[in-house]
């Protein structure tokens, strides 16, 4: 039986197409996504930074442990909440009271009004409830309640990996349900996913594996390397024993993006500080 409600003339979609603009993260990640528009005066296409992650994108933030994934999404969450764009934060790993402390510190370091952050953020603590972690219907119903309650514009889930621990055969199904849910509710979302340390950063698995990367709109890979040879020390212009952290956009189906790998640091106060392209820092073109 044909399902006619899912068949469109292309022109029917004109008024349903989302506007392309950036949702700022408060980091230089905002400069790594682009728009390309035709300039009639110059008779050529002009590329300029989008100013954030794409509006309504569902992005996968992945990497091995201790690469800064949670710090990045926390920074994004407080930055958006302080700008009066409500955020739903689903914590799957860390109990909510610990999250409160981390978010308050982020706001203080960034010079943001924490009262606004408190007012514009709603939290689901799935770390303390097995039903929320293991029953997608319960989790999605709870998320829908929270989104309506606070009229949220952004969602952070840290981490989606915690929703399919010990049952990775269901990972693709769970991520697909989440993706469709977030699209239905018009949310811009960051999903943290864990990568095994044995998976090379250049492989498809580095983007969270087939379960996540092939479903979401795009993937951001965070990585780290310990300088343990003279060759690495020379390449990165660091001392042996130091840690070099990198971040790259591994794909985005919504807008163009930089193909460079960027160097970043985690500051003493726990902020993500993206310095610039690795190629320039190491002396390349």
Automatic annotation (TrEMBL):
UniProt-listed Gene3D superfamilies: P-loop containing nucleotide triphosphate hydrolases (3.40.50.300)
Alphabetized PROSITE patterns for the sequence: KAIC
SUPFAM superfamilies xref list: P-loop containing nucleoside triphosphate hydrolases
Source organism superkingdom: Archaea
Pfam families registered for this protein in UniProt: ATPase (PF06745)
Listed GO MF terms: ATP binding
Residues in the signal sequence: none
Annotated protein name in UniProt: Circadian clock protein, KaiC
Taxonomic lineage from the root: Archaea, Methanobacteriati, Thermoplasmatota, DHVE2 group, Candidatus Aciduliprofundum
């Amino acid at each position: 039986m044909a399902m006619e409600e899912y068949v469109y003339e292309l022109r029917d979609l004109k008024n349903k197409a989302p506007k392309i603009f950036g949702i700022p993260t408060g980091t230089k990640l905002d400069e790594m996504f682009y728009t390309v528009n035709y300039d009639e005066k110059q008779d050529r296409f002009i590329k300029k930074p989008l100013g954030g992650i794409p509006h309504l994108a569902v992005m996968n933030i992945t990497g091995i442990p201790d690469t800064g994934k949670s710090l990045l999404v926390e920074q994004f969450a407080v930055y958006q909440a302080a700008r009066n764009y409500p955020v739903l934060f689903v914590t799957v790993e860390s109990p909510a009271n610990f999250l409160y402390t981390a978010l308050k510190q982020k706001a203080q370091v960034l010079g943001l009004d924490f009262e606004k952050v408190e007012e514009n953020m709603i939290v689901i603590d799935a770390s303390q409830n097995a039903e929320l972690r293991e029953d997608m219907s319960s989790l999605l119903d709870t998320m829908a309640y929270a989104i309506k309650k606070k009229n949220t514009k952004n969602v952070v889930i840290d981490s989606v990996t915690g929703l399919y621990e010990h049952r990775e055969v269901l990972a693709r199904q769970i991520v697909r349900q989440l993706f469709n849910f977030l699209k239905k509710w018009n949310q811009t979302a960051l999903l943290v996913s864990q990568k095994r340390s044995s998976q090379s950063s250049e492989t498809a698995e580095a983007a969270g594996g087939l379960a996540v990367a092939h479903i979401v709109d795009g993937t951001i890979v965070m990585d780290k390397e310990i300088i343990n040879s003279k060759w690495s020390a020379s390449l990165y212009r660091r001392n042996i024993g130091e840690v070099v952290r990198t971040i790259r956009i591994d794909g985005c189906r919504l807008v163009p993006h930089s193909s460079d790998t960027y160097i970043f640091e985690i500051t003493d106060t726990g902020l993500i500080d993206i310095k610039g392209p690795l190629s320039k820092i190491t002396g390349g073109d």
